[in-house]
Amino acid sequence: MARKVEEIRGLKFKQEVKRVWKSRDEAKAEMLANIDEELPPEKLAAMSRELAFFGIVKEGTDVKELFSEFISAGAGGYYIPKTKVFSLVRGFNEDASRPIVFHELIHAVEDQYYDYNARQEKYGDADMSDHSAAIQAIVEGSARYWEDAFVDGEEGLRMRYTAGQMAAEGMGESAAKVMEMPPAIIIGMVLYPYGNGSEFHHHVVPAMKTATPQEAFDRIFTDPPTSTEQILHPQKYLDGDHPRTVKLPDLLPVLGEGWERLGGDTQGEFGIGLVLNASLFPNTMPAQMMQVIKMPKAPLKTPEEMAKFNQTPVVEFKGDTAKAIGGWDGDRYLLAGKGDRMTLGWVSCWDTPGDAAEFAERYGKVIERKYGRVEETAGEDGKVSKKRVAPESASMESGAWKGTRWKGTRDGDSAILVSGDRVIVAERVEAERLEPFVLALGKAEIESDKRDTVPAR
């Protein structure tokens, strides 16, 4: 299979890749060990709090167990760049295993040439998850792009591959586990990197008009996308549309004594889309998938086309969510904590003032839904009707910033304010500290990328 990878990918292995067989339990144990190595307990706890605050997972979720369950449930094989070892999980027949082996060996050979893991870790460690997720997409997208070339190049393999996956040992139980997981985790770890990553390459590679696809991939890995926005909209990568960098001031002194940093990062267009959908639609797998699955432009005519569509779904945010995240141009947030209390300070910038206003309006709906209360009213017929009532709100101004303030949003008050192409979100701030906290957020520095050829308007 290594020779087949070299033939199709156009890269020669510099060294042999060690391959081992693993049971599903052994794979899970290895994943847990990797998580322990890369994410210390305090970082895992912070990640869990952040995901819960934004509505991605329920409060108290064990993120370590969630990630290991997901990987062990769905993985047919995996390559670990640090150890340079490829593991194939037992339980798949030959027709199902061959594309898996090919996919993972693509990772291995590209690791030998591009050392993509070092860049992904660099951005992840710097709390630049949006940039890291862009790297992840080109890596997984490349492996899926070339895997498809391999599978589609052998007559009948697509359907045998599909049948082999469905018949794999424990696959029914694994699929049931996946359906019980938080939808945003599945969308972020499966649909986006593989589907959107592959679609990115299918758009960018021919547009580069290089002599061979291999040359285009070399350019992409050498100068990769800098945001999930560029993955979701590949033309923005080709146009040189790079996001701005938001630098927050020191916010903890404004909150008072005893507050500490729990986390901070960049959500990016993809992350904000997940947050909006998780908060504003039923957070079940069917409901969330309906909001993101990109449907084919033309009817799927053959079983092979249907199988390929099901194996590599693509994320496309829809409706009000698409409008709210379109025009993203950078963001940064701080999540602070004091005992059981949490406060969010978040600054984002957008391509136009209109884009900023659309996001502010939509995230205002999140505030109202998250902190609203349910009122019950008994009718004359004795039936009880329920209605969600938003927290009390009023207009708020702070210098050039204008927006809305909500009272009694759990640990404090919240506000969303807009000034030109910028938006401030201050969530669950002690009432008496909200105004100085907003003033501090308004002092965030926003820097343009020197490579950006599409400046904000």
Share of residues in strands: 15-25%
Describe the global form.
Answer: globular
Strand order of the largest sheet: 5-6-7-13-12-11-10
Q: How many extended strands? A: 14
What integer is the average pLDDT?
89
- Low-confidence runs: none
Structural class assignment: alpha+beta
User: What is the number of independent domains?
Assistant: 2
Instruction: Please compute the radius of gyration using only Cα atoms.
Output: 23 Å
- Helix residue percentage: 40-55%
**Main sheet properties:** 7 strands, antiparallel
What is the count of helical runs? 20
How many angstroms separate the termini?
A: 51 Å
SSE map:
Layout: H1 2-9, E1 18-22, H2 24-38, H3 41-53, H4 63-74, E2 77-80, E3 85-89, H5 94-114, H6 116-125, H7 129-152, H8 157-166, H9 171-179, H10 183-208, H11 213-222, H12 228-232, H13 234-239, E4 245-247, H14 252-255, E5 260-265, H15 268-280, H16 285-290, H17 303-311, H18 319-325, E6 328-338, E7 341-350, H19 353-371, E8 373-378, E9 384-389, E10 393-398, E11 401-409, E12 412-419, E13 422-429, H20 434-441, E14 445-447
Parallel strand pairs: 1-3
Antiparallel strand pairs: 2-3, 4-14, 5-6, 6-7, 7-13, 8-9, 10-11, 11-12, 12-13
